[in-house]
Design a protein that fits this description.
alpha+beta, Neutral Protease, domain 2, Zincin-like, Immunoglobulin-like, 3 domains, 4-stranded mixed β-sheet, 4-stranded antiparallel β-sheet, 10 helices, 28% strand
Length: 439
């Protein structure tokens, strides 16, 4: 793949096109009982017999602004769920879900995901650029969802037919996938990366971050551990199956285990270290400088170096090394809780943890070298919560500099378990030994 300074790659968008955008208009004919949909706004529809005398229904769509040369056409016998919604920033948006009449079970979850996404993204990254947002169901010949301009096709199994539990501790994946795909209306359709190494950090990793922040507003902090643990395991598994070379996020070459899974971990850790507001300020600035309307002035598409520069601009000197660890190197930790004891202290409880921590840098072939540990790492203590779900009684960073350290914390409720980096914020080679039951 082209390097981040390649002059040809810098002039091309992520799709590899030399043209920046196209003026889009299309007319589609379909069976008379179906609805055909493409990006843009419906101009008119009519029925007409074709050359064989078969009646066809025609749909004419046109977009009111240039879009990427990237679109889909879908046709089916749809039922429609519609709602006009006013996001926190910007104009009202017509929200529409086109679905199989028998697949309505998760529509409210998906509609809620659209609303929550528009609210968070418009408030933090900039206004949504269209007056319509549509989700379209298609059969599971392929198992994906993909975001086109104002139009997002979903395979039926990605949300429409999933059995989703509302039980405590369960993740609503229909909501989550909706949030990820809507994020691409910003990261992909407002900002498009150059066709060089690191490009998918700007598109997929930022969409992962955006969705995680919406989820964090929806679920308690303890639930985020389930997301992060899944992403951590996927990343570590992907490393094990890498046939070529692992790249840092800044140089990722369309390696899904890096830009999706490690991207989630890195972006979540970044907002945890420097603050969600600072990350969002950097992303808003990045979007303002590098949106597609600014291409002529910039003379090129943005790269991961441009994004990382915005992150560094909002990061204090004491945490600049975090940027290096997360994006520019392959950095791993080996954190472990060795022992947890508890002693009553009046009505409170003193919890003593002995923890181990180590830090490594890996090269592209997976060879690891120990590196100096001087990092703020969370210590967490859990107690019994509602519905048999543990809740965090204590969650605070300690700057760890030694391989082993003993820490004592007082909590006001009887603890059940405790450990180091319990929410899996860091890329830990073995996260299964991070938390132990108290003795």
């Amino acid at each position: 793949m082209r390097t981040r300074t390649d002059p040809v790659g810098l002039k091309q968008g992520a799709l590899g096109d030399d043209a920046d955008e196209i003026n889009f208009a299309i007319t589609v004919s379909t069976d008379p009982d179906q609805t055909a949909i493409a990006p843009g706004y419906l101009q008119r529809t009519w029925k007409k017999a074709d050359a064989n005398g078969q009646l066809r229904t025609y749909f004419s769509y046109k977009m009111d602004r240039p879009i990427a040369d990237f679109y889909a056409i879908v046709s089916a016998r749809y039922a429609i769920k519609k709602e006009l919604y006013k996001p926190r920033v910007g104009n009202p948006v017509s929200l529409e879900i086109y679905y199989h009449p028998n697949h309505s079970v998760n529509l409210d979850r998906m509609m809620s995901g659209m609303k929550a996404s528009l609210d968070y993204y418009s408030a933090n990254f900039g206004a949504y650029q269209y007056r319509q947002l549509r989700i379209l169901e298609f059969p599971s010949y392929r198992g994906f969802a993909q975001s086109f301009a104002n139009t997002v096709p979903f395979a039926e199994g990605m949300g429409f037919t999933q059995k989703i539990s509302d039980a405590p501790g369960k993740i609503d994946y229909a909501f989550y996938v909706t949030c990820h795909e809507i994020a691409h209306q910003w990261w992909g359709h407002q900002v498009e990366s150059a066709n060089v190494q690191g490009g998918t950090l700007l598109i997929e990793s930022l969409a992962q971050y955006s969705a995680l922040m919406v989820m964090q507003k929806t679920y308690p902090k303890e639930m985020m551990q389930k997301f992060l643990k899944n992403e951590l395991d996927d990343y570590l598994g992907g490393r094990g199956f890498e046939r070529k070379k692992e790249k840092p996020l800044a140089e990722v070459e369309n390696q899904q285990y890096i830009h999706y899974s490690k991207g989630s971990l890195a972006m979540y850790a970044l907002q945890d270290y420097i603050g969600e507001a600072n990350v969002n300020r950097a992303l808003h600035n990045f979007r303002d400088k590098w949106n597609l309307d600014e291409l002529a002035k910039n003379g090129r598409y943005p790269t991961s170096a441009d994004l990382i520069a915005e992150f560094r601009a909002v990061t204090p000197d004491s945490l600049q090394s975090v940027i290096t660890d997360l994006f520019e190197t392959i950095t791993l930790f080996e954190n472990k809780v060795d022992k947890v004891t508890v002693k009553p202290a009046g009505k409170a409880f003193d919890v003593t943890l002995t923890v181990s921590a180590a830090k490594f840098r890996a090269d592209s072939l997976g060879n690891e070298t120990p590196t100096k540990l001087n990092d703020p790492i969370y210590i967490g203590i859990y107690g019994e919560g509602k519905n048999d779900q543990d809740k965090l009684l204590f969650y605070q960073k300690y700057r760890l500099t030694k391989p082993k350290q003993t820490i004592t914390v007082r909590v006001n409720q009887k603890p059940t378990r405790a450990g180091i980096d319990p929410l899996n914020v860091l890329v830990d080679r073995n996260s299964d030994d991070n938390v132990k039951a108290v003795e």
